[in-house]
């Protein structure tokens, strides 16, 4: 009727829109083992990367020390390097047998074919590639590196670097660690590299 108010049917009102879901973050599908020289930042970057991905961070050196109730230098001095490498291989295999995680390995771990094979079965190796000068700057003040307890530690580091880099180059993935880069910046680079491997990191 003219002049009358129009009464709307409440049943025809549009239901409120459901709240928008937050986009899911990246999901680690398989484990990532950080490999590289002493001082390349495997522990620090590994912790940052694991936190970003909400997965466990594992450290093979820390696990060895916990199992042996001794530090790495003490194990080297007491039992020798071959004994240490055997225990290292056992620990890496055990840690990789669990759910997807970020694993920091000792500098010499990737030199052993058995460890490379274990990492490949579980996921992928990510090499933190740092120049010799940067490595020396990071390790020169520390006394926790048994392989550098020589009359010429920098020369020893250079020799180890030359021996190991060709093997590190076998890693499926690589991230450059630059002087002046923060841990978070290097972790950003690592995430970008992992995103190129959807079998390792699911981003959608």
Automatic annotation (TrEMBL):
Residue stretches spanning the membrane: none
Residues that bind Mg(2+): 43
Location of the region described as Disordered in the Swiss-Prot/TrEMBL record: 1-26
Reaction catalysed by this enzyme: shikimate + ATP = 3-phosphoshikimate + ADP + H(+)
CDD domains: SK
Record: residues binding substrate: 61, 85, 107, 164
Binding site for ATP: 39-44, 145
Leading EC class: transferase
Protein's pathway: Metabolic intermediate biosynthesis; chorismate biosynthesis; chorismate from D-erythrose 4-phosphate and phosphoenolpyruvate: step 5/7
EC numbers, comma separated: 2.7.1.71
NCBIfam families the record matches: PRK13946.1 (NF010552)
PANTHER family the record matches: SHIKIMATE KINASE, SHIKIMATE KINASE 1, CHLOROPLASTIC
Descriptive protein name: Shikimate kinase
Species this chain originates from: Rubellimicrobium aerolatum
């Amino acid at each position: 009727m003219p002049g009358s108010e129009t009464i709307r049917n409440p049943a025809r009102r549009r239901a409120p829109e459901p709240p928008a879901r937050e986009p899911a973050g990246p999901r680690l599908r398989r484990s990532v083992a950080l490999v590289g020289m002493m001082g390349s930042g495997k522990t620090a970057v590994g912790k940052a990367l694991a936190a970003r991905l909400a997965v466990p961070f594992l450290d093979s050196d820390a696990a060895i020390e916990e199992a042996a109730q001794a530090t790495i230098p003490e194990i080297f001095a007491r039992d020798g390097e071959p004994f240490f490498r055997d225990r290292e291989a056992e620990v890496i295999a055990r840690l990789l047998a669990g759910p997807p995680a970020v694993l920091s390995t000792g500098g010499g771990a990737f030199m052993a074919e058995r460890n490379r094979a274990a990492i490949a079965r579980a996921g992928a190796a990510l090499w933190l590639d740092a120049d010799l000068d940067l490595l020396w700057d990071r390790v020169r003040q520390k006394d926790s590196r048994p392989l550098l307890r020589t009359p010429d530690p920098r020369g020893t580091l250079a020799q180890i670097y030359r021996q190991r880099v060709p093997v590190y180059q076998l890693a499926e993935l690589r991230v450059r660690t630059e002087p002046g880069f923060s841990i978070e910046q290097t972790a950003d680079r690592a995430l970008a590299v992992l995103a190129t491997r959807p079998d390792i990191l699911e981003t959608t």
